[in-house]
Automatic annotation (TrEMBL):
PROSITE patterns: RESPONSE_REGULATORY, SIGMA54_INTERACT_1, SIGMA54_INTERACT_2, SIGMA54_INTERACT_3, SIGMA54_INTERACT_4
Protein name (database record): Two-component system response regulator HydG
UniProt lineage: Bacteria, Pseudomonadati, Thermodesulfobacteriota, Desulfovibrionia, Desulfovibrionales
Classification via SMART domains: AAA, REC
Provenance organism: Desulfomicrobium macestii
Keywords noted in UniProt: ATP-binding, DNA-binding, Nucleotide-binding, Phosphoprotein, Transcription, Transcription regulation
In-chain residues carrying the UniProt-annotated modification 4-aspartylphosphate: 53
Pfam families: AAA_lid_14 (PF25601), HTH_8 (PF02954), Response_reg (PF00072), Sigma54_activat (PF00158)
């Protein structure tokens, strides 16, 4: 799909030249001749980049930039200016501009700037110099918490250390375990996963260590456990905090001695296994309360990696959402251009209690239900729409006067401070609106 660019400039001749140039490079172009109109356009349609002039008659480029960033903080904006002022450049960058370009434009510089903006706004992955071989190449995100996490993974992966992966449900702890395995010398051998919460204690013991024929009712043949299956590779124990205390002691012995015994057998089997464990529980608190063995905790917790919750890295929401959109669109043989601005706004202001897994499910549902080329608000589940409305509407317990002031302020912001349009939306005359603005101190 063509990338869509919004060009904002009140110099009609310059705008016409830019539209022709960008069109010849394969971009789809929309235009606005004023900052207020640009803000309205961004609220109405989904854009990949905004390219805006600074000096304009009504609302200038810096103010438009601030309003656009307030609405969608992650939409890349490039500023154009004919004034080589350091102050203007600093002002633009502080307001959130990705870069600024001097007029008359250097077309090579413009093209490079657009490509960089599109790369930033696209479904980037955190990759290192190793390219596809990099262990974190499947981990999507470019936020500071994700950069810190991936740096730790690269440092820890080549070692033999046990790693405890901490994080809420749905954050991607198993993906971290896979990255650690792929970055280790053991990557040619299997990574075997066991969900400790999925089986009763006696079945989990058999799953881990194996059993002899006749060891218990239903054991009709000898079976190797997951430790033996993972020999030479990695064993990932998911939801380790759910393991029963009796089995914790047997796991500790296996880790300390590097050997296991099948149920019903007296013979020990040597195993060479690196153990990774994950939990959404506070294991330190579990240790204090006696629910988890202290010696096992320290045996597993040689290195601790914490996976951030999605609400702690909102910068990654557009990247993840686009990634899931492309994946599910391809799987369902559909074609999408992206998300409407309102959908992205709702996603950015939602708390995501289910983390990345919840976002993935929301996007898959939208792909299945959406009939158009853009995912719209109507394609989102009611919980997401309702939560956003409660966050953005007037708060309960307000006086009528406070509610009126908030409604006027919010409407002015939404229409780019266009008072005629605000009066129309609010259903009052322009004179009444001005009077109310003066009363509430909104006319400054």
């Amino acid at each position: 799909m063509k990338a869509r660019i919004l060009v904002v400039d009140d110099d009609r001749a310059h705008m016409t030249m830019l539209v022709a140039m960008l069109g010849s490079w394969g971009y789809e172009v929309d235009t606005a001749d004023d900052g207020a109109m640009a803000v309205t356009r961004v609220r109405e349609r989904a854009y990949d980049v905004v390219l805006t002039d600074v000096r304009m008659a009504e609302v200038d480029g810096i103010e438009a930039l601030r309003r656009i960033k307030s609405y969608n903080p992650y939409l890349p904006v490039l500023i154009m200016t004919a004034y080589s002022s350091v102050d203007v450049a600093v002002q633009a960058l502080k307001a959130g501009a990705l870069d600024y370009l001097h007029k008359p434009l250097d077309f090579n510089e413009l093209r490079t700037g657009l490509e960089r903006a599109l790369e930033q706004g696209g479904a980037q992955r955190v990759v290192g110099a190793g390219g596809a071989a990099d262990p974190v190449s499947e981990m999507i995100g470019d936020s500071p918490p994700m950069r810190e996490l991936t740096a730790m993974i690269r440092a820890v992966a080549p070692s033999e250390a046990s790693v405890l992966i901490l994080g809420e449900s749905g954050t991607g702890k198993e993906l971290v375990a896979k990255a650690l395995h792929e970055g280790s010398p053991r990557k040619a051998r299997p990574m075997v996963t066991v969900n400790c919460a999925a089986l009763a204690e006696n079945l989990l013991e058999s799953e881990l260590f194996g059993h002899e024929k006749g060891a218990y009712t239903g054991a009709q043949r000898q079976r190797d456990g997951r430790f033996v299956q993972a020999d030479g590779g990695t064993l990932f124990l998911d939801e380790i905090g759910e393991m029963a205390p009796g089995l914790q002691a047997k796991l500790l012995r296996a880790l300390q001695q590097g050997e296991v015994q099948r149920l019903g057998s007296d013979r020990s089997i040597r195993v060479d296994v690196r153990v990774l464990a994950a939990t959404n529980r506070d294991l330190e608190a579990e240790v204090r309360d006696g629910g988890f063995r202290e010696d096992l905790y320290y045996r597993l917790n040689v290195i601790a990696l914490r996976v951030p919750a999605l609400r702690e890295r909102p910068e990654d929401i557009p990247l993840l959402a686009r990634h899931f959109l492309h994946r599910f669109a391809e799987r369902n043989r559909k074609s999408y251009r992206g998300f409407s601005p309102r959908v992205m706004d709702l996603m950015l202001h939602y708390d995501w209690p289910g983390n990345v897994r919840e976002l993935e499910n929301v996007v898959e549902r939208a792909v299945i239900l959406s009939p158009g080329e853009f995912v719209t608000e109507n394609d989102l589940p009611a919980t997401l729409r309702g939560s956003a409305k409660s966050d953005t509407g007037p708060s309960g317990g307000q006086s009528l006067e406070d509610a009126e002031r908030e409604a006027i302020a919010r409407t002015l912001e939404q229409v780019g401070n266009n008072k005629s349009e605000a009066a129309r939306v609010l259903g009052v005359t322009r004179v009444t609106l001005r009077s109310k603005m003066k009363k509430f101190g909104l006319d400054s």
